[in-house]
TrEMBL record:
Residues 94-105 have a biased composition (Basic residues). Residues 365-583 form the DNA2/NAM7 helicase helicase domain. This is DNA2/NAM7 helicase helicase domain-containing protein. Residues 88-115, 304-323 are annotated as: Disordered. PANTHER family: DNA2/NAM7 HELICASE FAMILY (PTHR10887), HELICASE SENATAXIN ISOFORM X1-RELATED (PTHR10887:SF495). It comes from Somion occarium. InterPro entries: DNA2/NAM7-like, DNA2/NAM7_AAA_11, P-loop_NTPase.
């Protein structure tokens, strides 16, 4: 029996469904893996132990994973590895002396543009021709709504409805927001702001008197108190003495991200992955694009000649036919090499599945929901439809639980929906099943009861948060000294005295040294923050956010080969593309 299982692991394409028990496969793999994988450095995170006592008291599965940390990985998401969120020993958190191995530096891949003759070129041109004008029209209508409100409502009404605050004084804060400057706005010391609609994430227009008569500065709210608003801008500008007016604006970021997602259909993530292999310890591309292009573009296979031809409605020319460049690939999903999952998904996709000892027990699900789960994890793309109240959201939650608690897959999972309320409902459901969700989103748009699941809360509680605060404090101190030095240099230059030339040279030398010190501190702070993000994302079973927010820079620390989109019918197709473009 053990020889049969060993053959199964060596040749998953010829496997027979023997068992779905992850404990058996992990232990068996630990004892025989060296027979079928070459010996090369292994860059991914695996369990480590600081002492023999710690190893003896650890979970047997973690010890098994530790024993094959020298094996080569076949892809970025090797099915043989165990989910980091399920490891019971994490020296990075228990040992202050331990420093995790530095992973590859992740960089944006070079931009690609399909050329005529390339696969998917004609289909992508048709796709863009269909959606880009619609996005432009929707954005123009959005701007018209804002202009209509600003032009037809009086200033007094705008203030009463909370869309506008006037008479504000402002100054730049020393702390920035992810490298962008932040300004504080208030009516005066201790003066409470009136009721308003300026919440975290709200886009604002900043002017002196009238946003229709002036060119406004655009920013977003990053913090609010009873007496002040903190607004983040793209760059600093003159905030001299005088009063300012803030209006609730409309953000173009949603439309920009949808256009970017459409553009990323030019990218082939398989090529990006092959250009920076898994054993590359220095550089790794952030995967952009999707392996689902053949499915997403299949509806746009009609050629331009077919579109121009005005044939009869029931003629053969009006029926879309398979394009030469769009042919469906292997329908099996990202887990096709994992015999445990593929065996279970194949058997339970049928109405009358063959049940094998060790199969997971899915409670409170009917046969249709179980079939839907099997199809979701066994196939590349699955659409689950049903009337309200039929348990579609519960089916997604149980699918995530199955992957992370039973099969313990290494692959990161991204769970999206269109609204923040729906994301919060998903997070609550995931928590009730014992999963560890990570909520990505502006703090003001997340339920207070879910605050501990947010990225901000986990960063504040991270073991490296003190280190980051110390580096940020040092950076601020050097920036102050540099600012003062620049002022003194400017004063000396204005005097134009030969006797001060030597002093001026020394000060300029100090300025160069400060610039180098500042660059080093910023690089160190960035590295610490990236390490914190990697730890937090790895420790989560599933990352939950809206479709639009899934393009957040914080999620560039990893790629997401598995994406669930709940309530997809509420989202436009370009918005649903945003999470799908993450590899």
């Amino acid at each position: 029996m053990r020889r049969c299982c060993f053959s199964t692991l060596r040749r998953p394409d010829l496997a027979l469904p023997v068992s779905s028990n992850p404990i058996y496969y992990t232990r068996h793999y630990a004892s025989h893996a060296a027979c079928y994988a070459p010996l090369t450095p292994e860059p991914q995170s695996l369990p480590e132990f600081n002492s023999q006592e710690e190893k003896q008291s650890a979970d047997p599965l973690d010890v098994a994973c530790c024993n094959f940390d020298h094996l080569a990985l076949t892809t970025r998401f090797d099915w043989r590895l165990r989910a980091p969120s399920r490891l019971r020993v994490d020296p990075r958190k228990t040992s202050p002396k331990h420093r995790p191995r530095r992973g590859p530096k992740r960089a944006q891949p070079p931009h690609e543009n399909l050329q005529q003759g390339n696969r998917f070129y004609e289909e992508l041109q048709a796709y863009q021709k269909h959606f880009l004008p619609l996005l432009a029209a929707e954005q123009a209508e959005d701007e018209e709504v804002l202009k209509e409100r600003l032009s037809s409502w009086s200033e007094e009404r705008l203030k009463q409805e909370g869309y506008c605050i006037t008479g504000l004084s402002a100054f730049w804060l020393e702390n920035n927001h992810f490298g962008r400057p932040v300004a504080s706005f208030a009516l005066g010391p201790g003066i409470t702001l009136p009721e308003h609609r300026f919440e975290n994430g709200t886009q604002v227009l900043l002017t002196r008197l009238d946003p229709l008569q002036e060119e406004p500065e655009r920013g977003s709210i990053v913090g609010t108190t009873e007496t002040q608003l903190r607004v983040c801008f793209q760059e600093m500008f003159d905030l001299d003495a005088g009063q300012w007016r803030l209006d609730v604006g409309r953000s173009s970021i949603v439309f920009d991200r949808m256009r970017t997602a459409i553009s990323q259909l030019n990218h082939d993530p398989s090529r990006q992955e092959s250009q920076t292999g898994t054993n590359d310890s220095d550089r790794q591309f952030i995967l952009q694009g999707t392996h689902l292009r053949d499915i997403l573009l299949r509806s746009f296979i009609r050629t331009q000649q077919d579109s121009d031809a005005q044939s009869e409605p029931d003629s053969q020319e009006d029926v879309p036919s398979a394009s030469a460049s769009v042919t469906l690939m292997d329908h099996r999903g990202v887990f096709k090499d994992d015999v445990r999952i593929q065996s279970w998904a194949t058997r339970y996709s049928s109405p009358d599945p063959v049940v094998i000892e060790g199969d997971p027990i899915l409670k409170d699900l009917n046969s249709t929901q179980i079939r839907a789960i099997a199809m979701m994890i066994g196939q590349r793309f699955t659409l689950v439809q049903g009337p309200p109240g039929t348990g579609k959201t519960k089916t997604i939650i149980e699918a995530v639980r199955l992957l992370k608690t039973h099969f313990e897959v290494f692959h990161p999972i991204l769970l999206c929906t269109y609204t923040n309320v729906a994301v919060d409902n998903l997070v609550e459901g995931l928590l009730t099943t014992g999963l560890k969700p990570l909520r990505i989103g502006y703090g003001g748009k997340v339920k207070e009861s879910l605050r501990e699941t947010t990225l901000e809360a986990k960063i504040a509680a991270h073991r490296l948060s003190k280190d980051l605060e110390r580096v940020n404090a040092q950076t601020e101190m050097v920036e102050k000294r540099r600012k003062n030095l620049l002022m003194r240099i400017s004063e000396l230059r204005s005097k134009k005295m030969a006797s001060l030339a030597g002093r001026l040279i020394n000060m300029e030398t100090d300025l160069i040294w400060m610039d180098r010190q500042l660059a080093a501190l910023k690089a160190k702070g960035y590295a610490i923050y990236q390490e914190m993000l990697k730890d937090i994302v790895s420790d989560a079973d599933v990352v939950c956010t809206t479709c639009v927010t899934s393009a957040s820079m914080a999620l560039n620390v990893c790629d997401f080969p598995v994406v669930f989109v709940d309530e997809a019918s509420m989202s436009t197709e370009p918005a649903s593309l945003i999470p799908l473009m993450k590899g």
